[in-house]
Amino acid sequence: MSSEFTKLFELIVSASLINNFVFTRFLGLCIFFGVSKKMETAVGMSITFVSVMMVSAAVSWVIFNQVLVPLNITFLEIIVFIGIIAGLVQLSDTIMRKVSPGLYYKLGIYLALISTNCIILAVPLVNAGEKYTFVESIAFGFGSGLGFSLALIIMASIREKLELADVPAPFKGLPMAFVITGLIALAFTGFSGLITL
Amino acid sequence: MSSQSNTNLKELFLNGIVKENTIFKLALSLCPSIAVTNNLKNGVFMGVAVLFVQVMVNVTISLLRNVIHPKVRLPIFMLVISGWVTVTQMMMAAFVPDVYAKVGLYIALIVAFASILARAEMFASKNKIIPSMVDGLGMGVGFLFALTVISFFRELVGKGSLWGNAIINTKPLLIMILPAGGFFAVGILMALFNWINARYAAKNAHASH
Fold this sequence. Notes:
heterodimer; A: 8 helices; globular; B: mainly alpha; two-stranded antiparallel sheet; 8 helices
């Protein structure tokens, strides 16, 4: 029993730190550069991300293993997963509009963009590829969401300071953000080898 | 009339390569621009895959534009895109298995490219087949161009080779093929494009005076 927990813990740590989606797998970069300008939006986005990712990991695991595998139509995984995600995003969009209109007003466009976000689609695809169990899939979704949130928040705090810095003209804006991400990624390579799975 | 429509097509084609270059100008669909560009071969194949999907999606949507009900257009666009991506994925797995083993996940994620959905929504759903095809070609070639430049730069500096053939004999700068190097490379190339653009604009303003 305890080894089960150790394994789940290792999975979460490895998904969030060692194989961080942004810094070592380069996914979700559009959103990463899009919402990391302000701390407040970064935090809101992180919360949305973690919840959507966990739920989509769970739902798509059930559909993949109970419907696609028995029917032998796993090659349809992309189409099915994107459908599930689009539905979930629509749902969280509606809930957020009712529960917190202020946040909805701020994140509106990015929430719609979540459905075309690679990270959210990558989680079920990796889960299916690695043949994780149900609990492991959710843990992987949670870990990845946590890693993405960490990346967003680190980046947002740096970019808020960067507003005041004197950056050479051609590097203003995105190019500088890329170079900074490179430096953070370099720091994150230090995590590799933390756990050997 | 025909000459005018020809220049329009030419402009449409160039628009995707220069003015609205997906990676360097719009900063969309960035994931593969870093993930698969640590050698030239992967970068080029990824670019070709995107080019193919973009053109086929634009043509399909343009053909169906009068049939699709506007209220359900987004799910239908997604369906068309994921259909063509699945086709691409299977073709790559069959013909270039060594490349597919490395870039497989990123091919599947073409589905989530904002740029492809955006072109379908903004252009192909409102225009005839030929302009839509040219628009897709322009956007796709622009993407291929960006990936080629980035991966050319990274493989040359990071490994001292091109397409797997060793070119430079000195010890390469290993960092460029590491994950972090991808971000540096894109950042530096973007800055370079900005610099060239600024120089060009300044020159034009100077000449007109």
